[in-house]
Amino acid sequence: MIDFYTAGTANGHRAAVALEESGLAYRVHKLNLQAGDQRKPDYLQVNPAGAIPAIVDDEGPGGKPLTLAQSGAILLYLAEKSGRFLPRDPARRALAIQWLMFACSDVAGGSGTLFQLAMAAPEKSAANVEFFEKRLVHALRAADGQLAGRDYLADEISVADLALYPVVATRKPVIEKHGGLPNLTKWAERMAARPGVAKGMQVSV
Ligand SMILES: N[C@@H](CCC(=O)N[C@@H](CS)C(=O)NCC(=O)O)C(=O)O
Question: Which residue puts its alpha carbon closest to atom 1 of ligand 1?
Answer without folding.
Answer: 70
